[in-house]
Amino acid sequence: FVLLLVIVSTAYAESPNTMIYKADKALAENPNDAKAYYNRGTAYLSLEQYDAAITNFTKSISLEPKAPDSYFNRGLTYRLQKKNTEALADFSKAIEIFADNWAYYYERCNARIVTSDFAGAVADGSEMVRLAPKEANSYFMRGLAKYLGGDPDAGLADAEKALELKSWHPEALRLKTEILEKKK
Q1: Where are the alpha helices (DSSP H) in the chain?
Q2: CA-based R_g, the chain, Å
Q3: Cβ(10)–Cβ(38) under 8 Å?
Q4: DSSP labels for 64-92?
Q5: pTM of the entire structure?
Q6: Distance between CA 22 and CA 170 in Å, rounded?
């Protein structure tokens, strides 16, 4: 299943190289600028320079430990490196700081599915449904976790709800089709 990747950034309109240049300039003036490290980490993440991204997010966190997006993006970076234990810890920390961000639960749910923690993924899926009840991906992810965790009927119900909200949701359609095929 193809899953959504969300990168939280305040500077979408700028190229990664421009973001790095501006961050370097800001850090030359103030080496303790957590936002500059965060922006540079985001740029390195978009350039797929994962070690540099982690270094910058880690520095941002050390300067501003209550910034959930730094944990979230470092978690994304870890997940891209297939370091799911580290990713789960960072997504959990982001949620601990700010529990009302749907994307934090989405990515933790995704990481939990990859690590076969289906009960945890279902719990995250339920939280996504609570936070974003009109978001088809909330139901899809919870349905996928239920299905993979051994409850195909509940997985099918969530896949159908996702399709009710977004009829052209390809992953939900694939999930529904797979469940129905296995029921034959």
Answers
A1: 16-29, 34-46, 50-63, 68-80, 84-97, 102-114, 118-131, 136-148, 152-165, 170-183
A2: 18
A3: no
A4: -TT-HHHHHHHHHHHHHTT-HHHHHHHHH
A5: 0.89
A6: 39
Say which residue the tokens 């490290």 belong to.
Answer: 37
- Nearest of 104, 45, 44 to residue 72 by alpha carbon: 104
pLDDT of residue 4: 38
What is the Cα–Cα distance from 148 to 43, expressed in whole angstroms?
34
Half-sphere exposure of residue 183, counting CA atoms within 13 Å on the CB side? 13
116-175 pLDDT, tens digit per residue, is 999 999 999 999 999 999 999 999 999 999 999 999 999 999 999 999 999 999 999 999
**What does the alpha-carbon distance between residue 83 and residue 74 come to, in Å, rounded to a whole number?**
11
Q: Tokens 């961050």 belong to which residue? A: 23
